[in-house]
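FIELD: query
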Amino acid sequence: MAIKTLGAKAAAALDQELMSTGAFSIDQLMELAGLAVSQAVYRLQPLESGRRILVACGPGNNGGDGLVAARHLRQYGYSPSVFYPKRSKNDLYQVGLPRKSGFHCSSP
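FIELD: result
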C-alpha cells in the first residue's frame, strides 16, 4: 500500500502557510498530524496484527505529533509505549498527554 508523504521542507512550508493565514494554530496542526499518523498506523498495522506500538518522540513539533498519535492509537485499542528521551520545555507538550492518556511514556 503506497502512502503519500511530504518532505520536511514542504511540510514546514505548508505549516507556515496554514498558520500565517490564521486558519490554524500550532496545536491544531499537531492534532491533525497526530490523527493522520494514527490513521496510517491503523491501516498498515491492523489491531489483529498486534496491539503493541512503540512511538519514538523528540523535543520538536514532530515529537508533539507523536504524542498525539499515541493518544489516538490508545483510543483505537492499541497499547502504545512512548519513548521520549529529550522532553520539550514548550508548554504545549506539558499539557499531560502522557499522564492523562493511559500509555507508558519512558526516557533514558
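FIELD: remark
The beta strands are 52-56, 79-83, 104-106.
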